[in-house]
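Anyone? Bumping this.
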Amino acid sequence: MSPATRSGRSPGARASSAGTVDWRSVAPAPVVLVVGPEDYLAARAMDAVRSQVRGVSPDLELTRLDAGSYAGGELLLAASPSLFGERKLVEVHGLESMTEEFLRDALAYVAAPDEDVVLVLRHAGGTRGKKLLDAVKASPAPIVDCQPLKKDADKAAFVAAEFRGSGRRIEREAIEALVAAVGSSLAELAAACSQLQLDAASTVDAATVEKYYGGRVEATAFKVADAALAGDAARALSAFRHALDTGVDPVPMVAAVAAKLRTLARVAGAQGSANQIARELGMQPWLVEQAQRDIRGWTPQSLAEAIRAVAEADAQVKGLARDPAYAVEHALGVVSAAAQAR
Amino acid sequence: MSVWADLRGQAHVVEQLRRAAAGEGLTHAWLFTGPPGSGRSTAAKAFAAALNCEVDDVLARGCGVCEGCREVLGETHPDVVFVRTEKVTITIDEAREMVAKAGDRPQAGRWRIIVVEDADRMAERTTNVLLKAIEEPTPRTVWMLCAPSPADVLVTIRSRCRPVGLRLPPVEDVAALLVERDGADPHLALEAARAAQSHIGIARRLVQDAAARERRSETVRLPLSLKTVSQAVALAEQLTRIATDEATSSNEERGAAERARLLATLGIREGDKLPPSLRAQVRQLEEDQKRRAKRSVTDSLDRTLTDLLSFYRDVLVIQLGNGVELVNSGLAAEVAEFAAGSTPEKTLARMDAINLTRQRITTTNVAPLLAVEAMAVGLI
Ligand SMILES: [Zn+2]
């Protein structure tokens, strides 16, 4: 983590914005802009700024404002120097639905911010208040861009970083299992990380993850997909039936198989070393290696057939079928056979 | 300009509606049908304007300049309600609301008019709510339902409506309209009209937005480099991305236009202070815009697949050698080479793969990327 610069503006250092900074390394500055739709990362970034300011100034005066119901004047009031010289932190939420009054006050403020105040602006996305965003971007203020982590590789990197910070170790198979089990929500993924850090005695391995999160829908889907792509129809079908019996929705299972087939198809067509391919496709190298091993049993025709069967099953479970379970079982059968076409 | 000017290549429909507006053959329920882009809702709107036109001469109704006409065209007329849904279906509550509105007496105009733009997006139960209102209409009420084809509306409703059948106007008429109305360059207008296969809205967008033209041209070239399953999966990703970009860009444009229109209706200029009493209305509009974003990605993906389909349609035209004009005339050489490398049967199978996926994404909540992947491997 970079050292906290108390009031960001070193004379003549930068003509325009400090640019985009990572949420893990954001430091307090007169104005900090937190943009992007991933609320969880935004909350973490704002926490980080708050705790750093608090670390330096324990008697900090904190004001929270909502830009969506802002009526006028509150910003200046909150940011005006305190009589007793306490450091001031102003956090403004909801800039994506800011009122005209907020836009006006904030534009005036960011043009000449008070060096003893930290103003954190949270804008979740959209075009409202673009003028203000542009003004901040043209200023030396740091900007934290909180985009959702879409790729499994990014989620795995997130888990790794969470563990790095804690000093506890996690095996890479465990990371993969954890991302598969609770990766659909970043907040849940982070919660799972801290839970495991607290509870696990030593290095976290895949078995620990299985024990904690194995019953989750995503984990079940992962098991079903894994078996089908390994060509093990019996194991895939029994995992699927077991999941259905426990009331698990078939939709995520179809999605998991589709995702694995997608990876297989992408890796099959890529040239170069596993590391090069991983970089190019935004995947973890070991996943590329696994896909390269898996692809040996397939032919182009069998891969195409498997993709078609899974798409058919998706259409069936989404409402066309009388018996959605049968549709998925059929697809699992096709996929398992296709995995051993060669 | 009269309200009928936008209905190019639909002389028979204009004649029918003009007479009705003059009192000859007017009835309480109308069903406007025609393929997407044929101007169903434009025709209904023009007819609604003509019915509430303030000109005394019945034969000149639909003048396009009186307050009545302008308010209907601008969708601000107090007696004319437009019902359109961005959702997959019109809900039963929305239908009840329509029926309630239909019962009110007209305040400013001659007729109270309900235009239902997506009459095909109604479940049977919902349609039955309308049925009674259409069967026993209040004397000053006119219903106008729009749907792609008569078969999309329950027979009980259909049988009570007078049909108005629109067809896709010839490419030349669409191009001429774009030149006259929007001042488009004639060459560009013709190319856009052809690429849009006479869908006026799409053609207009292609004329006005270079990025949209670029996306379309990217789409129709995709089949040229498709050889392997890996390429098919990459192609599927590209198609879904193109469709998402297209939806985002047209949503932003439309969103800004709607906001400007709402502010104008509320009597506020852009940049003015928004009084607290009106904030809720603006907020509501923004919420609605967000909600329809998902639906419009599906629509846009369907449109993108239609563009893709036009490539294979051109291939088939060349393979069958029937001398019909190509939709993608700029790609003639590539299409000819592609056609030589396959057979009509293979082309038809590919078109079937595209149509199957279009059907899935528009009627079922399937995962779009997976559905397009399955299609793409069928195009190899
Ligand atoms: Zn008029």
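Late reply, but here is one note on the structure posted above: The CA atoms of residues 221 and 252 of chain A lie 6 Å apart.
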